[in-house]
Amino acid sequence: MKYLVLSFLLLVPTYLAAQKLEVKKLVPNINASGGVTMGPDGFVYVSDFGAAFQPQDSTSVYKVDPKTGKVSLFATGFKGASGACFDANGNFYQSNPHGNQVSKVLPNGEVIYDFATEGLKTPVGIVANSQDELFVCNCAEPSIRKIEQDGSTSVFAESEHFSCPNGLTIIEGDTLVAVNFSNGKIVKIAPNRQVSVLVELPALQGGPNPVGNGHITYSQGFLFVTSIGKGTIYKISKSGEAELIAGNGAFSNVEGPALQASFSKPNGIAVSPDGNELYINVSDPSWVSDPKGLHPAHLMVVKNVCSLPDVKCEKKK
User: Which residues pair with 226 in a beta bridge?
Assistant: First the structure.
């Protein structure tokens, strides 16, 4: 357990580094508290998990213009839409944690709801690698599964370090990085399937179970993670140095300077193509007294990420 001590020592809030970051509410009352995905078209796709502990027959994915906040319906009919991703051909893959399946939305809008079902138990985060191979977090049977182009699946990685793996992203070399919901661990999965803990973030303690992380994204050489239990956003280096960049830990949704702003159950996270903005959906603070009450949800944006001194964003041409 030596790595835990070392990991927590790295959790140093970067008050000076984050002082230029601002949190704004981009879309109020979008009622979609699942995953957040940046599309190849520059639009933000926000998935509706639905009410907690109350599986619904039909939830939706919404398409948001990040410049105007205009919302339109992208697809519907999912069973608790959570993590999602696009492949290089423009196909959209949506995890259905309440339906134990992954759906596929073709570029023409056709939806294959039961594209992948084999061995999936509460699938959440999903990502496509450089070869368009799909990988998905299997929360209820803690593992990472690989999904083939025909929809068949197999176990890719199992480890004692997985505890409801929730969010999933990919870094250089097709290395996967997953975050746990049931504790604060952030776990690396190498292409050779070797699993290791990168760092462990604080989790919310005191309830029947710890509440840890939401989702994760990668940009400009850094990982960005939502901590659901603590209501905060972290930037993490590939060597495991974690820095608090947004959120004061209050269970509310307040705009303003990043370290004074607050997030209620921040979950999905996506980054703009230029790396300067993070899009995060949050839940209504009513969940504190009513855990099922995730709505009305909102879509927040953290601006000026490129102002962080060690984040080297390329300027737009």
Answer: 233
- Please report, as a single letter, which amino acid is at residue 189: I
Task: Determine contact, residues 305/275, Cβ cutoff 8 Å.
Answer: yes
Cβ distance 14 to 244 under 8 Å? yes
Length of the chain: 317
Mean pLDDT for the stretch of residues 250-257: 95
Among residues 154, 155, 180, 177, the alpha carbon closest in space to that of 165 is found at: 180
The answer on pLDDT for 14 being more than 80 is no
Model confidence at 54, pLDDT cuts 50, 70, 90, reads low
Adjacent-strand bridge partners of 64: 44, 71
Both tokens of 24, joined, read: 């704004």
What is the Cα–Cα distance from 266 to 33, expressed in whole angstroms?
A: 8
Estimate to the nearest angstrom the gap between the alpha carbon of 280 and the chain centroid.
8
Read off the CATH number of the domain in which 178 is found. 2.120.10.30
Q: pLDDT at position 151, please?
A: 96
Which residue range forms the structural domain that includes residue 217? 2-307
What is the total count of domains within the chain? 1
Q: Looking at the domain assignment, is residue 316 inside a domain?
A: no
According to DSSP, the β-strands at 242-246 and 232-237 are antiparallel
Interatomic CA distance for residues 192 and 168, integer angstroms: 17
- Report yes or no on 11 lying in a domain: yes
**Structural domain contains residue 197:** yes
Give a yes or no: residue 312 inside a domain.
no
Q: Following CA atoms 213, 143, 236, 304 in sequence, which dihedral angle do they give, to the nearest 10 degrees?
A: -60
Q: Could you tell me the two tokens for 190? A: 């190498």
Dihedrals φ, ψ of 8, to 5°? -65, -30
Residues 6+ apart with CB under 8 A from 239: none
Q: What's the angle, vertex CA 128, arms to CA 197 and CA 109, rounded to 5?
A: 140
> Which of 3-7, 149-153, 294-298 has the least mean pLDDT?
3-7
Question: How high is the mean pLDDT of the chain?
Answer: 91
* 187, β-bridge pairs: 178, 197
Percent of the chain with pLDDT over 70: 89
